[in-house]
Amino acid sequence: MKKTVVLGSTNTDMVIAGRKLPAPGETVSGGRFMMNAGGKGANQAVAVARLSAAKGACIFIAKVGDDLFGRATAARMKKDGIKTHLVVDPREPSGTALILVDAKGQNMISVALGANGTLSPEDVAPFKKDIESSAAILMQLETPVETVAWAAKVAHGAGSAVILNPAPARKLPRALYPLIDWITPNETEAELLTGVKVVDAASAAKATAVLKKRGVGHVVITMGSKGAYCGDCGKLYPCKKVKAVDCVAAGDTFNGALAVALAEGRDCVEAIEFAQKASAIAVTRPGAQSSVPYRREIR
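and the corresponding structure tokens:
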């Protein structure tokens, strides 16, 4: 069985769920505090592990501090059956995020990258064989882009599918685009990458054309409550209608599920539908990794 490698960040999320998000300079009291496991890379690794048909289908590569949060990450990954390669930074702390969530499930997030920001190609090089033998590698942008580009080159050269969730939004080096098999920006990220303001299927098609011209193989643009646009079939797929409690990790769940479906050989329509079902479940639950569903829950 070929595995899916997830290369990315791991954070501890400090969450306050309240009635509203504060405006600049405003204090909002009466919220409920939670401390949850998070980080885009770790969230997506958990999604891959829980949504795969077989156990042990995910390998997670990340960097942590020599601290309690880093050791807790290793324990959590093991619980989900994920093979982990955690590089320890003796100087930087493990990543953390401060998250505010309102009564409608909307959120504001501030991230301190910590050790995530020092993950280098040299750190990942010892795990090169895992990348080369994988069905796919799934990456985000909470770790240095040069490390993402290095891993993409390794995977691409070995024939493994390269899936990039370009979040948080940032410009990418032009040399990276031809190495990407699947890119999954949201509307904001798509606009930053292409200069096209994405508001509907027509504008998503224009953004897709820009990305494909740069060498990307396939484009899926997530558009929140509007659904997900598939560049291959030129169609906007409506999202599942649910009562949202917390949108944290909805995108990460979508990406992990999409990676699983693609690794299983499903076409784009089946993969997007599978990913939408998983993310629809995730938004009905609080927390990041705690909200990620298991495969048996997908109907």
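(Above: one complete record from the training split.) The domain at 4-22+32-287 is CATH 3.40.1190.20 (UDP-N-acetylmuramoyl-L-alanine:D-glutamate ligase).
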